[in-house]
Amino acid sequence: MRLNIVHIIRNLICGVVLYIGATSFSLFAQDDMTPVVKPEAFRGHARTAISILEQSSGWIISYSNRMCLESEVILKNENRTLLQHLEDIFAHCSFSYVIRDNKIILRPVDPSEYSYTVSGFTYDISSGETLPGANIFNYISGIGTAGNNYGFYSITLPGGSNVLTASFVGYSSETKSFELRSDTVINFNLKGSLQLAQINIESDFVHEGLYTTNMGTTIIPIEEIKQTPALLGETDLVKNIQMLPGVQGGSEGFSGLYVRGGGPDQNLILLDDVPVYNIGHLLGFFSIFNADAVKNVTVHKSQFPARYGGRLSSVVDVRMLEGNKDQVKGNLNLGILSSGASLNGPVKKGKSGFALSFRRTYHDFIAGLVQRDNEESTNYYFYDLNAKYNHSIGDKHRIYFNVYWGRDKYITTYNYQNIASEPATENNQATINDENNAGWGNFVSGLRWNYLISPKLFSNLTVTYSDYRFFIGVERSNRAATNRESFEQRYLSGIRDLGVKADFDFYPSYNHLIKFGAGAIRHYFNPGIDVVQRNASGGSVSSEFGEDNIVGGEFHAYLEDEWDLTRKLRVNTGVRAVAFTGESKAFYSVEPRLSLRYDITRSISARAAYSEMSQFIHLVSSSNVNLPTDLWLPVTDRIPPMRSRQTNIGIDIKIDNKGVFRFTSDYYIKELDNLLHYKESTGFFDYSTYWEDKLTIGSGKSYGMEFLFSKTQGDLKGWIGYTLARTTNKFDELNNGKSFPARFDRRHDVTITANYRLTEKTDVGLMWQYGSGIPVTLPSEKYFAPNFPYYNGDLNIGYSENAVAINGFRMPDFHRLDIGFNFTKVRKRSTRIWSVGAINLYGRQNPFLVYFASESADEPGSSSRVLKQLSLFPFPIPYVKYSLQF
C-alpha cells in the first residue's frame, strides 16, 4: 500500500511538470527556418547591417519603410540564425515576418497584436512590507488577477497603452498607466487607508473581488484589529475572527475557534506557513499572536483551495511582518496585563531587513510583592518572542527566516508545614509545602526561499519546524515525625513536526493560474507520561505509565487550476493527494475541490463550492473548555482519519457602484466522519487504560445560513453578521446511540462591529455579540446510594447523580457590548496612541458554566438543589493602553 501511494504521488508530480512544460513550450516556441550565418562584426546604420547579412546568407531581406531603421546597431560575429541577427537589429521595433523560398519579408506590427507579461510585487509604502493577495485590475480590458501569499503577481496584457490598478483591503488603491512593448516589471506601493479621513475612488465602479472565486475568504488587516476594543487592552486578532459569521469562540473570553460546528483541532493555524497547535495564552483568554508582529490575517472557512489540507473546518493564515529595508521603526505598548516592544529595520539598506517583537506579562512580579509574606501563593506569567529576517538576492531570489517562541507558566504553593530534626535548632529547621504547577508553549520556525523562475513562474521552497509541549504537576508533602514523605505526579504530552514543501505559481495567460506543489511532514507524538515518585527516609521509588512516542509521516501533492471559462464564469478546480504512514497501516486520501463564480451583473455574483478534506491528527478534549492539556493524537491501526464533505452556495451583492456597501450570504452543509470522543466510562486521568481504549468513534453533521452586511469605507466602517446553524454528533457508544447537539452548537449568532472616526485624532469602536445558549450536560436524576452493609465503620448515607442525555440542556443566552476609544497624536518623529474602553459595558452576567448546588440552609443529603452559574466577567472591565510608534 505504501509503495502504491508513493507511486501515485510521483506520477501526479511528473504529470504536472510535463503539463506545465508542454504549456510553456507551446506558448513561447516558434520555428526558425532561416540559415545560420556568421557575419563580420559591424557597428553602424541598420541598412548597412542588413546588406551584410544578405551577403553572408545569400537570402533576400525585404522590409517596409515603416520599420524603425536606427543609425547605430551592432552586428555580432557569432554563429546565429539570420532571424536572430535581425532581432538584434530591430530590438526596439517589434516586427512580423514571412518566409518564401530564400526570402524573408519584414513588416512592423502594432503593439496590440502582441501580448506581454507584466509582473511585480505590491508593497505597503510606509513599511515596505509586501501585501499578500492584493488585487490587480486592468480597466481597459477588464482583465484582473490577485497576488500570491508573498505579494507577487503576474498578468498577461496586450501591447500598447495599458492601465493597471492595485488594491488591498484597508489601503487606498494605486493606478499606473504605461506603454507595453515588452515583458515589464511594475511594483505598486499602497498607502494604508485606515488612517485616511476620506478615500477618493477614481472609477465609477469598484471591480475588486469580482474576478476571484474565493468563497468564505476574509482578509483582516492588522490596523483594523488594533482599532477594536480588547480585554485588558490586549489586542487579539483571534477575537476579531470570532466576530465573523459561522465562527464562535466557545466559552466567553476564550480564544478558541469553532467554525461551522467544527472543533478547535479542525482549524489549520499557519504562522508564516508553519502549523501551530495551541494558540492560547492564559488558559486561552488571549491568543499567542502579538499584533505588533503580525501583518495581516486571511481566513478560509467555506471553499478550500487544493494547496491547503490536513484540517476539516477552516484555515487561518497569519503573516508576520518581514522587516523594513529602508528605515528603522519601532513600537512600545504598555498595558494593564502585559507590555511589549517591537523593532524593525534594515540590516543592509535596500537588501535585507529584520522584525523583532517581545511581549511579557508582569503579573508574577506584582503577585510576588503582594504575596511576599503569605504561606499560600499563586503565580502566573506568559511571554512570546517573534523574529523575522528577509534578504533579497538580486531581483529573483528572496530568503525569509522566522521564529516564534512562547511560554506559559502557572504555579501555586500552599499547606506549608515546619519540619525539624532532633534536637531542634535554627540550623535544622525547614519547611515543606504542597505545590501545583503547569506550563505549556510553542516553538515554531520556518526557512523560505522565493525564486522567480520567469515572469510567469514563481516558486517557493519552505522548511518548517513546530514543537508544542505541555505539563501539569502535583506535589504533596507530609511530615511523619521528623521525616518528610512526598508524592509527585506529572503529566507531559506534546507534538513535534518537521516539514518541507515546494509550491509553484504558474501564469500561462491573463485569465489562467496554475498552482501545484508537494510536501512532507514528520510528526512526533507523545500522548502522555505519568511519573509517580514516593520519597521516604529510606529512599525513593519512581514509576512511569504510558510512555509511548509515536511517529507518523504525512505526504501530499496538489494541483490547482483557476481560469475564466467565459467572461462571467470563473472556475477553480483542483485535487489534493495525501498519504499518512503510522504504525503498520498506511492511510491515503484523494480530495477533489471545485468552486465556481458567476457574475450575474456588474454588482451581483453567485458562487458555489465543494470540498473534501481529511485530517490525520486529532485533539481529544477532557472538558468543555479548550485547555492546553488537551491531547494531540495521530491516526493508528484502530483510529481512522477524520473526513469531511462540505457544499456551499452563496451570493455577493455590491449595493452601490462604489462598493462601499456589500451584502453576502452563504448556505452550507458539512458532513463529518470518524470523530473522536472519550467514552462515558473513562477520562483524561484514567491511567489503567491505554489511550486508544479511552476513545470512541462517531460522526457529525452541520448545516446553516450566514449573512453579512458590511460598510468598508468612510468615517463609519463595520459589519452586521447573522448565523443560523445546527450541528449534531452521533456515537454508537454514547447517549444510547442517539444523536446529540455538538459541543458548541449555537442556533443563533449575531455580531455587530463598528468603528467611527470622530475627528482626525479620535475614533471609537463598538462590538456587540449575541448568541443563543450552548449545550451542556447536567444530571437529571438523583438517587439514594448508601454504603455497603459490610463497610467497617459508621454507615454513611449518600446520593448519586445521573445525566440521562449528553448536552441535553442549554445555558442561558449570551450577549455583551464592548467599547473602546483611541486618541492619536502625531508628532514629527513619532505617534502616540492612548486606548481606553470597557469590556461588557452593561455588566451582563453571561454563563461560563452552570452546576447544581444545595442551598446552604439545607441539611446534608437533602434532595433539594439549585441550578447556579459562574460568570467570568459579571461586571464592566475597564482597560487602558499606551502605545508609542516611532
UniProtKB/TrEMBL annotation:
GO molecular function: siderophore uptake transmembrane transporter activity
InterPro entries named among the record's database cross-references: Beta-barrel_TonB_sf, CarboxyPept-like_regulatory, Plug_dom, Plug_dom_sf, TonB-dep_rcpt-like
Top-level taxon of the source organism: Bacteria
Membrane-crossing residue ranges in chain numbering: 12-29
Protein's GO biological process: siderophore transmembrane transport
Primary location: membrane
Membrane topology: Multi-pass membrane protein
Record Pfam families: CarbopepD_reg_2, Plug
Occurrences of domain TonB-dependent receptor plug (ranges): 214-311
Location within or outside the cell: Cell outer membrane
Protein name listed in UniProt: TonB-dependent receptor
